[in-house]
Every structure is written in C-alpha cells, then in structure tokens.
Design a protein that fits this description.
Elements: H1 2-30, H2 33-37, H3 39-62, H4 69-74, H5 81-86, H6 92-113, H7 119-143, H8 167-196, H9 201-232, H10 243-268, H11 272-294, H12 308-332, H13 347-379, H14 387-404, H15 418-424, H16 426-442, H17 450-472, H18 479-488, H19 491-516, E1 518-524, E2 529-532, E3 535-546, E4 551-561, E5 564-569, E6 572-576, E7 581-585, E8 587-590, E9 594-603, E10 609-617, H20 621-637, H21 640-643
Antiparallel strand pairs: 1-10, 2-3, 3-4, 4-5, 4-6, 6-7, 8-9, 9-10
Helix pairs in contact: 1-3, 1-7, 3-6, 6-7, 6-8, 7-8, 7-12, 8-9, 8-10, 8-11, 9-10, 9-20, 10-11, 10-13, 11-12, 13-14, 16-17, 17-19, 19-20
C-alpha cells in the first residue's frame, strides 16, 4: 500500500508542477495577482508530494520489499542499513526522484523566503522552476518508474554495486545533485528576468545566495567523490579526468565564474548581460552532466544508466531548455542596459579576468570530454582523450588566474591602484620565494617546475590573508583597534579569504602529489620488505576475514621508519558474494608530509602477491582545501547582506517598465 501511495504522490507532484508552470505564467501575462500567487502553494504542494514519494521508496529499501523491481535490482537483505538507504539513490530511477526532490526543495525555499521579491519576478521564476520539474517528472513516469512491481516477488535481491557501498559514496550523490540542481534556481531567475525584460543589481542580490548554496554543495560533492576514488579504487590517485568527473567539474567552473560575475553586477550594476548568460550556461552544463551520466554514451565507474532511449529523452529535455533559454536571451539581451563602466585595473576588471579564464577552462574541459564522442558518432573512430591533453591545456589556462587571484580583493571598485596592491602583497611574494628556494634545496629530483607550483600555492595563501591583515591593520595598529576592525569586517570578506585560502591549499596538494609521488609495483612474499620515501614496508602474509555481505582477503603489512614501528596496514580484496564482484580496499597511513598508500593485488603463480606501494606527498591538502573553500562559502552565506534580500529601493515599484 505504501508503495502505491508513493507512486500516486509522484503522479500528483507531476500535476502540481504543471499548475506551478502554467498558472503563474498566465498571471504575469495578464498582471493577475491571484494567478501569480498560485506559484507559492503549488511549489509547496509539489515538494510535499515528492517528499512523500521519496520516503515511500526509502521505506521499500529499508524493509527490503523485493516486490519492488528497483529494490530487487539494487538491494539485498544482508546489506547494512546505511547502504540500504543509500541504495535509494545508488541507481538511475531512485537518483532521479532525489534529483526532482531537490529541484522542488529549491523552489520551495524561494516560495517561503522570497517575500521581498517582486510578485512578477517571483511568479515567473517559480514557473520556470516548475517547468523543469514537469520535464523530469514526465521522464521518470514515462521511462524510469521507480515503483514498478514484480509478481511473484523474489526471495532476495541482487544487491547494490559493491563499489557504491562506501560511506563517502552514500553522501556524495545528494551533495552533487544539490549542486547540479541548485544552479537551476539561478537559471530560473535568469529566464524570469528575460521574460520581464528587467535586470538590475537587486536581481543579482536575489540570485547570489542560491548560486552560492549550489556552488558549496557541488564543491563538497566533487571533493567527496575525489576522496572516494582515492582510497576505494586503489589507483593511488585523486583525479583521473574521467568524463563523468568532468561532467561535474564543468558546472563548478562556470558556477564559480557566475558567483564572481553576480558580485560585480550587485556592487557596480555592471556585466548584466554576461551574468544572465552565465546563469544559463551553468545550468546547461549541469543538464549536460545529467545527460552524460544517464544516456549510455559513456563507459565509466560513475555512470548510472546505459539505456539509449532514456538518453534521447534527456537529450530532448536538454535541447528544449538550453535552446529555449538561449533563444530568449538572443531576443531580449539587446534590449537590456549594459550597466556601469569601470577601468581595466579595478576590482571589476580582475573579476572579468576571472570570468574569462574560468569559462575558457570550462570550454577546454568540454572539448576534451565531448570530442571523442562527436568523432565516434561521425566517423566511427574511437579515441581516448586523457590526462596528457588536460594537463597540457587546462593547467596553462588556469595559471594566470592563480597568479592574479590575490590582487582582486585588494583593488578598489571602479578604479584600482595596482602599485598599492603590489605593496600589500610583498610579504606573500617573499613567502612564495622562500618556498621555491626551499623546494629546490630539499628535493633532489625533478620535475623542476614543481617548486614554482609550491610557490604559487603559498602565493595564493599569503594573498588571501593579506586582505584581512590590511583591513584590520594587523601589526600596524594597537591590538584593540585591530580586534575592533576584525569584528567589524563583513562575513563575506572572511568568506572570500577562506575560499581563496582553500584554493591555495588545494594547489599545494595537487602540485606536491603530482610532481613527487613515489610508486613501486613489486611481487612480495611473506617476510619480504620494500623501502619507499624513508619507510620500510614488511609483508607479513594474508588472512581471511568476513564482513556483513562480503568475504575478504586482508594483507598484513608492518611499516617501520628508522627501525621504529610506525603503523600496521591492512589493505584487502573484498569479494561480494551476491554480486560476485571483487573490490580493492587500500591501506593508508597519513602523516604530516603525506600518505603511505599500500594496495594488495592478485596472487602470483610463483607465490606471493602483487603489491603496489605509493607515497603521495601532501595529498590531503587537496581535500582540506576544498573543505576550507566550503567553509568560506558558508561564511559568505551568513553575511547579513545575503540574507536580507533586495535593498529597500527595489520595493519602489513591483513592476517597473522594461528597460529600453
């Protein structure tokens, strides 16, 4: 009965989404406040119904109701409860329900907390958001029904894909979807503004919090996926330029550009047309990511579905929203005022440079991801575009941005003083120079450009701290004045500082582990030892062990340094009996300088086992940096200026005349 209620709620949510789309649009066309007001209860109703449907599906997984086909395919009675719950979104159908639920959640938040929005803009934005729900709910009901029954019901299920049975992968998809779907709110506001033909600084202030939330969620989602790939796949790396990894990275790059562009529009009433275009393109890249993961055009450990018919359906949805919004943009953009002017050397100028580089980097990743697919579809020839291409193109594109990042916050709006900014960055430059010299002195092998990468990371870190040091007059004023200034700084200033600081830390981790990773692949018998990065790794043999739904063979490794015991590592190979699939669990020892990473391979004919041993210097700075970036976004989000909504002057006219 609960399953049927969940299915019925999904159908009713589809009907509520249709109402949310059509009536508010009709109301804004007729200037009928009653019809426009329908958007709010319709959005709330859709969210409640989708929540009910999602909970019904989760109930089926938790109690192992194998009469539901989706549960039978993706769960098992012996599976731990955490993975029964994560199994709800560990498949195509369930993940799409979560997708539309998050979509409805963002619409509901705007409906509840957008009281100071002009009625027309609010109604149009919720209508556009509702139209996205209509498309994807129709897709779910027509091609991906999660509530299909089996008769008779099987005794037990097939179980969830073993590589997805991991804590990081349990939470990675919800954060990733919140990022993907969160950008839909910026898209909806952009289309709503184009429908009305009105765009001003207040619009940017309404858009920026939703964009920031989406960016934060996507940042932490990508980070969790990278961390999972690092310790679960046993490849010793943190990023592999997998096409599906790129699918989430592209909207992150575009969303970062959108955040900075919206800031210029809010502060200086400039870059209006460009900001709207970025809002459209960012969500378009999110839709592209959805298509790549679910269309079957890619083969990846991350891909959900391989059904071409579903891929064609999603392609149609993508073409409708991307094509329709770009056509509306082409029609309306020439009618919008351009906004304020500014000098090239200014904070606005630095943010324009930021936008140009980030969008170029996103275009580079897009070309590298789609080119093999386009080539194969046209010629039948299969090629692989991997790390060498991206390392040779993406890195040089991003380098100017990393060098210029510390200057932006130190430049004034409209017209900046580059010489004053340089003076404030002297100590950051000095820190960077010392790091470069020390790296050359301490590292006895190349690559010889790596020390400059370390210097660049510390340059970004020092630059991030420089703004706070300058604005609080640290070391230049009495401590009580510094403290007073520190308390008076807006939280967004600290948010910017932490976001840039996190970027610098990630750069340090990326450079160090990419340049100086040590690797050994050896055949080891019990009692044998290998030396790597000052550690001595001694193989003590293997031992069997059982888990709740798997059996594993555990490697017994002792790690010493200078004759002293450091740790014991137990990498393993797990055999999931239901799925008859083997996964690798790495043994990792973390120290201040990096990770010692041990992977147990296959048993060899000559006796012993294949063993891979890595030392990854400073690798955890990559994920620490992303957490710091997330915290910076959170601080900015708590800034009062992002919570109060539009300034009072925006209330002067609910429907000002369209811009000429």
């Amino acid at each position: 009965m609960i399953i049927e209620i969940g299915h019925f709620a999904l159908i009713l949510a589809f009907l509520a989404a249709i109402i949310q789309t059509l009536l508010p649009l009709l109301g804004t066309y007729r200037r009928d406040n009653v019809l426009m007001a329908v958007a709010v209860p319709a959005a709330l109703t859709q969210f409640i119904l989708l929540t009910l449907s999602f909970l019904a599906l989760m109930y089926a997984f938790v109690i192992s109701d194998f009469s539901v086909e989706l549960v039978w395919k993706n769960s098992h009675s012996a599976k731990p409860v955490l993975y029964k719950i994560s199994g709800v979104w560990g498949n195509h159908e369930g993940s799409m329900v979560l997708w539309v639920l998050i979509l409805a959640l963002f619409g509901t938040l705007v409906a509840l907390f957008g009281r100071n929005l002009p009625p027309g803009l609010k109604a149009n934005a919720l209508a556009v958001q509702g139209s996205i729900s209509v498309a994807f709910l129709f897709f779910i009901l027509a091609t991906s029904n999660p509530f299909t029954r089996l008769d008779p019901a099987p005794i037990d299920g097939r179980g969830l894909n073993p590589i997805l049975q991991d804590p990081a992968l349990a939470f990675h998809p919800p954060f990733l979807y919140a990022g993907y779907v969160g950008f839909s709110m910026a898209f909806s506001f952009a289309v709503a503004a184009l429908i009305e033909g009105r765009l001003d600084a207040a619009w940017a202030r309404w858009v920026r919090p939703w964009t920031l939330v989406a960016w934060m969620c996507l940042t932490i989602g990508i980070s969790m996926g990278s961390w999972w790939a690092y310790y679960e796949l046993g490849w010793g790396g943190w990023w592999f330029w997998d096409p599906v990894e790129n699918a989430s990275f592209m909207p992150w790059l575009a969303g970062t550009a959108l955040l900075h562009s919206a800031l210029v529009m809010e502060k200086r009433d400039a870059l209006k047309i460009w900001t709207v275009l970025l809002a459209i393109l960012t969500f378009s890249l999110s839709l592209l990511g959805t298509f790549l993961v679910r269309s079957g055009v890619l083969t990846s450990v991350h891909a959900f579905a391989t059904d071409p018919e579903r891929g064609v359906f999603i392609l149609g949805i993508m073409m409708f929203f991307i094509g329709g919004s770009l056509a509306l943009y082409a029609w309306r953009a020439p009618q919008l005022r351009q906004g304020g002017l500014f000098a090239p050397i200014s904070r606005e100028g630095s943010l324009v440079l930021n936008n140009l580089i980030l969008t170029s980097a996103a275009a580079c990743v897009l070309v590298g991801t789609l080119y093999p697919l386009v080539l194969e579809s046209l010629t039948g020839e299969k090629i692989s575009v991997g790390a060498p291409f991206f390392n040779m193109t993406f890195g040089p594109i991003m380098l100017p941005l990393l060098v210029a990042a510390p200057f932006g916050p130190l430049l004034a709006w409209k017209r900046g003083d580059i010489h004053a900014a340089v003076q404030r960055l002297y100590w950051a430059a000095g820190l960077s120079f010392v790091a470069i010299v020390a790296s050359f002195a301490l590292v006895e092998r190349g690559p010889w450009l790596a020390p400059f990468g370390i210097g660049l990371g510390l340059w970004i870190v020092g630059g991030a701290l420089s703004e706070i040091i300058f604005r609080t007059k640290l070391f230049r004023a009495p401590i009580d004045e510094t403290w007073r200034r520190a308390r008076g700084l807006p939280r967004s200033a600290y948010g910017t500082c932490f976001a840039h600081l996190g970027l610098g830390l990630s750069v340090l981790g990326i450079v160090a582990t990419s340049a100086w990773q040590s690797e050994k692949v050896v055949a080891m018998k019990p009692g044998q030892a290998e030396n790597i990065a000052g550690y001595r790794v001694i193989f003590g043999g293997v031992a069997p062990r059982s888990g709740p739904n798997y059996k594993e063979l555990v490697g017994l490794f002792t790690v010493t340094k200078g004759g002293e015991l450091v740790t014991r590592l137990n990498p393993s190979k797990r055999n999931f009996t239901v799925q008859k699939q083997v996964t690798t669990e790495a043994g990792i020892y973390n120290s201040v300088l990096g990770d010692l990473y041990v992977v147990l391979g296959d048993k060899l004919d000559a006796g012993g086992y294949s063993v891979r041993v890595y030392f990854n210097p400073l690798v955890r700075l990559i994920w620490i940096g992303t957490l710091v970036m997330f915290f910076g976004g959170f601080l900015s989000l708590t800034d009062r200026r992002l919570r109060v909504g539009a300034p009072k002057r925006a209330h002067a006219a609910a429907h000002p005349a369209p811009a000429e």
